[in-house]
Amino acid sequence: MIEPIEHAADILSKAKSAVALTGAGISVESGIPPFRGKGGLWEKIDPMKVAHIDAFLDDPETVWKLLIKDMKTVLDTARPNPGHIGLVDLERLGILKTVITQNVDGLHQMAGNSDVIEFHGNFAWQSCLDCNQSIKTSQVDLTQMPPRCSCGGILRPDCVFFGEMIPHDALIRSQRVSAACDAMLVIGTSALVQPAATMPLIAKDNGAVIIEINPEPTPLTSRISDLPLLGGAGSIMPRLLKAIRRRGPST
Ligand code: NAD
Ligand code: ZN
Predict the structure, then answer these.
(1) 28 lines ligand 1 (CB under 6 A)
(2) 122 within ligand 1 shell (Cβ under 6 A)
(3) What is the DSSP secondary-structure string of 138-183?
(4) Which of 56, 135, 150, 195 is the most exposed place for a label (fewest CB within 10 A)?
């Protein structure tokens, strides 16, 4: 029987418009903890108490202290890992067109992918709840909690909290590229957060092959994944790229 990784390499080496959907798992090997799963933040905190917009608006000080402050410290020094680099290589080979990411860490752009849809916004910027001014997260003064804008208003990260809408353009473009792709790589997502988790369904309904990379099975694995590759993105992606390069340029 042909090894799943070789099979995935066959499919990708012929693909012309592949899309990747990534989640927190692809950044685990960059030292950023995911929400769910082993070592996830949810082992320590209740998501609805800290990552819901109502929780933030009710008590921004607690949400800053429990979630946002630690995230800033981790993201300040995080760097792309071989999982992210593999997606850049796939783009350079002319196979991958777009990355749809649920992550807010900016690592796909730092690695060098040119078309990244940030489905849940970006942690690099903060907005003032009062005057809407934007401030770089790296410039936020953490000595006061919650941090404030020069006008005195409270700052919030430009990420989508639970209970908030997905940025309209990100949602529409994601649906469009998912419907048009010939292969979708689903990497490091528990596929439990909606509406991001519908993108592989849209791709599958439109004839794309679904290749999933995750050390654990997800709700997609038995339902729609054509090729589940069990393992961490940082080890699977380099092996996949090696197998694709061995096949040479597609015609
Ligand atoms: P999740 O936290 O719900 O699930 C993480 C998934 O990654 C799990 O299925 C786990 O098995 C898998 N995983 C763990 N290690 C992996 C590895 N080395 N390689 C590949 N996969 C691995 O993640 P989610 O589905 O993205 O949903 C959580 C939400 O939390 C997202 O919407 C995202 O916005 C946010 N989030 C973002 C970051 C980030 O920006 N890096 C970090 C935590 C949470
Ligand atoms: Zn302000």
Answers:
(1) yes
(2) no
(3) GG--TTSSS-B-TTSPBEEEEEPPBTSPPPHHHHHHHHHHHHH-SE
(4) 150
Catalytic residue among 7, 52, 108, 120: 120
For 23, residues 6+ apart whose C-beta sits below 8 A from its C-beta are 34, 101, 102, 103, 187, 188, 189, 190, 191, 193, 196
Distance CA 13, CA 72 (A): 38
CB atoms within 10 A of CB 104: 22
CA atoms of 191 and 198, how far apart (whole Å): 8
How many Å apart are CA 142 and CA 152, to the nearest integer? Answer: 14
The CATH architecture one would assign to domain 1-32+80-120+166-251 is 3-Layer(aba) Sandwich (3.40)
What gap in Å lies between CA 119 and CA 137, rounded to an integer?
Answer: 19
Q: What is the pLDDT of residues 31-77, one digit of tens each?
A: 998 877 676 777 777 777 789 999 999 999 999 998 899 888 899 89
**Rg value, the chain, Cα:** 19
Express each pLDDT in 201-240 by its tens digit.
Answer: 999 999 999 999 999 999 999 999 999 999 999 999 999 9
pTM of the model: 0.94
Q: Which residues are paired to 192 by β-bridges?
A: none
Please state the atom number of ligand 1 nearest to the C-alpha of residue 42.
2
CATH of span 33-77+122-159: 3.30.1600.10
